[in-house]
Amino acid sequence: MGFNCPVCGKAFGSMTGLRKHFRKNHSNLDRCPVCNKKVNNLAKHVMRMKDEDHQVLWYLYNNLRGLRNKELKTRIRMIAKEKLSRGSTEVHFKSIIFSFSNNFAHFKF
Protein backbone atom coordinates (compact mmCIF):
# COMPACT_ATOMS: atom_id res chain seq x y z
CA MET A 1 0.00 0.00 0.00
CA GLY A 2 1.24 3.49 -0.76
CA PHE A 3 0.16 7.02 0.05
CA ASN A 4 -0.29 10.21 -1.96
CA CYS A 5 0.40 13.76 -0.79
CA PRO A 6 -2.92 15.64 -0.59
CA VAL A 7 -1.25 18.85 -1.77
CA CYS A 8 0.95 17.84 -4.72
CA GLY A 9 -0.09 14.23 -5.35
CA LYS A 10 3.42 12.77 -5.01
CA ALA A 11 3.36 9.06 -4.14
CA PHE A 12 5.15 7.46 -1.19
CA GLY A 13 5.61 3.89 -0.07
CA SER A 14 5.07 4.70 3.60
CA MET A 15 3.16 7.18 5.73
CA THR A 16 6.46 8.16 7.37
CA GLY A 17 7.85 9.19 3.99
CA LEU A 18 4.72 11.19 3.24
CA ARG A 19 4.86 12.97 6.62
CA LYS A 20 8.54 13.90 6.07
CA HIS A 21 7.71 15.20 2.59
CA PHE A 22 4.76 17.23 3.89
CA ARG A 23 6.77 18.88 6.67
CA LYS A 24 9.66 19.67 4.32
CA ASN A 25 7.66 20.91 1.34
CA HIS A 26 4.24 22.09 2.47
CA SER A 27 4.41 23.21 6.12
CA ASN A 28 5.27 26.80 5.22
CA LEU A 29 2.16 27.50 3.13
CA ASP A 30 0.55 30.84 3.89
CA ARG A 31 -2.91 29.52 3.00
CA CYS A 32 -4.58 26.41 4.32
CA PRO A 33 -4.93 23.80 1.56
CA VAL A 34 -8.25 22.65 3.03
CA CYS A 35 -10.22 25.86 3.63
CA ASN A 36 -8.08 28.41 1.75
CA LYS A 37 -7.86 30.64 4.84
CA LYS A 38 -4.79 32.87 5.04
CA VAL A 39 -2.73 31.67 8.00
CA ASN A 40 0.41 32.81 9.77
CA ASN A 41 1.08 29.38 11.23
CA LEU A 42 -0.37 26.35 9.41
CA ALA A 43 0.35 23.99 12.32
CA LYS A 44 -1.65 26.05 14.82
CA HIS A 45 -4.48 26.48 12.35
CA VAL A 46 -4.91 22.77 11.61
CA MET A 47 -4.70 21.90 15.33
CA ARG A 48 -7.65 24.18 16.08
CA MET A 49 -9.93 22.86 13.35
CA LYS A 50 -12.15 19.86 14.09
CA ASP A 51 -13.09 18.51 10.64
CA GLU A 52 -11.44 15.40 9.21
CA ASP A 53 -9.47 17.10 6.42
CA HIS A 54 -7.79 19.52 8.82
CA GLN A 55 -7.08 16.67 11.24
CA VAL A 56 -5.39 14.73 8.42
CA LEU A 57 -3.10 17.73 7.83
CA TRP A 58 -2.39 17.88 11.58
CA TYR A 59 -1.35 14.24 11.44
CA LEU A 60 0.93 14.89 8.46
CA TYR A 61 2.39 18.01 10.03
CA ASN A 62 3.30 16.76 13.49
CA ASN A 63 1.93 13.24 14.02
CA LEU A 64 -0.77 14.57 16.40
CA ARG A 65 1.70 15.68 19.06
CA GLY A 66 -0.13 17.28 21.94
CA LEU A 67 -3.29 15.22 21.49
CA ARG A 68 -3.82 13.18 24.65
CA ASN A 69 -6.96 11.32 23.65
CA LYS A 70 -5.62 7.98 22.36
CA GLU A 71 -8.94 6.94 20.82
CA LEU A 72 -9.10 10.16 18.80
CA LYS A 73 -5.46 9.74 17.72
CA THR A 74 -6.19 6.24 16.49
CA ARG A 75 -9.31 7.40 14.63
CA ILE A 76 -7.48 10.29 12.92
CA ARG A 77 -4.61 8.00 11.88
CA MET A 78 -7.09 5.54 10.36
CA ILE A 79 -8.90 8.33 8.50
CA ALA A 80 -5.58 9.69 7.19
CA LYS A 81 -4.53 6.28 5.91
CA GLU A 82 -7.88 5.79 4.19
CA LYS A 83 -7.95 9.24 2.59
CA LEU A 84 -4.33 9.29 1.49
CA SER A 85 -3.91 5.70 0.33
CA ARG A 86 -3.17 5.16 -3.35
CA GLY A 87 -6.28 4.24 -5.24
CA SER A 88 -8.56 6.18 -2.91
CA THR A 89 -11.41 7.63 -4.96
CA GLU A 90 -12.11 10.39 -2.45
CA VAL A 91 -11.24 13.93 -3.47
CA HIS A 92 -9.09 15.27 -0.67
CA PHE A 93 -8.86 19.02 -1.05
CA LYS A 94 -10.86 20.81 -3.72
CA SER A 95 -8.64 23.86 -4.02
CA ILE A 96 -4.93 24.07 -3.30
CA ILE A 97 -3.18 27.41 -3.19
CA PHE A 98 0.57 27.88 -3.28
CA SER A 99 2.16 31.24 -2.60
CA PHE A 100 4.78 32.43 -5.05
CA SER A 101 5.92 35.86 -3.83
CA ASN A 102 2.45 37.42 -3.54
CA ASN A 103 1.12 35.64 -6.66
CA PHE A 104 -1.16 32.69 -6.25
CA ALA A 105 -1.48 29.75 -8.57
CA HIS A 106 -4.76 27.88 -8.12
CA PHE A 107 -4.98 24.16 -8.69
CA LYS A 108 -8.21 22.18 -8.81
CA PHE A 109 -8.36 18.46 -8.08
TrEMBL record:
Domain of life: Archaea
Domain C2H2-type: 3-31
UniProt xrefs under Gene3D superfamilies: Classic Zinc Finger
Pfam family, one: zf-Di19
Extent of the signal sequence: none
Protein name: C2H2-type domain-containing protein
